[in-house]
Amino acid sequence: MDFGMERLHKAGIDVTVWEEDRNLTPEELVAHCQKVDGLLNVGMNQLNRELMAACPNLKVISLHSVGYDHVDLEAAKELGIKVGNTPGVLTNATADTAFLLIQSVARNAFYLNHQILEDNWKASQEIENFGIELRGKTLGIFGLGSIGFALAKRCKAVFDMEIIYHNRGNNEEAEKLLGARRVELEELLAESDVISIHANLTTENTGIFNDEVFQQMKQSAIFINTARGGFHNELDLILALQKKHIWGAGLDVTNPEPMHADNPLLTMPHVCVLPHIGSATLETRTAMLDLAIDNLIAGLNGKPLKTELI
Ligand code: 8YV
Hints:
The protein has 310 residues and is an alpha/beta fold. Helices cover 36% and strands 12% of the residues. 2-keto-D-gluconic acid binds next to loops. It catalyses: (R)-glycerate + NAD(+) = 3-hydroxypyruvate + NADH + H(+); (R)-glycerate + NADP(+) = 3-hydroxypyruvate + NADPH + H(+); glycolate + NADP(+) = glyoxylate + NADPH + H(+).
């Protein structure tokens, strides 16, 4: 990745890049970052209080993500460090990914593709490998912000799905435009044919999709997670699928990431797993980087960030 070097150099910023094919440990980050004024975090490195406290010059943290569960915002606020993220620019790409997963699971696409590789073309004709229709079914959204809304629009337009959602507040636009209805979690679980997560991961909702919750879903339901792997308990999800408490699952996020190649989810019917590609189109990643650099430069110059979290 180019990291927008030209723009950064033009802005007179002295840049050091630490590029790894994994997230760095907090200790490694402290060792690297002690002298920096600004941090552009491309990836999911955990930015905790110890790191921030160990970097006395740090003025701004610019995230290359809309999610910010990997940053201690309270510590940043206390230490006077500005934090920006990249909302808006990745809304469509992420909603597209959720929509892709819903359809792929509903048609058992990844499993049947694997069957071709096993020289088992005829698996597509076996009744247990048939798909299910989405038309007229109910989409339940857990956390209806802009990405959830964009997905709901797609599901309404293409499959005329009913939209229900569980959220702290009402989303009036979604209610007016799509007839969406806000419900308690119990109703979301009981009524939805597809449940898709579009919330921010917090300590309160970490692991919320567990055995007990999967058992409250319809046996014909599809579980979709493009938000964060931390929302679901992976072992409970595997068991829920094996015991047929739910019908299928589509994941763009796993816990941990990367997922190991021997994970049973990768070969199960009605399951589609992607390697966290929600925002990974050329156009979206370019827009994210532009915005993240805007935020970095603004923060280094003591100006308000374009998209400031704190
Ligand atoms: C990743 C994401 O940030 O925006 C988010 O919250 O999870 C993704 O867009 C991206 O893959 C990291 O570069």
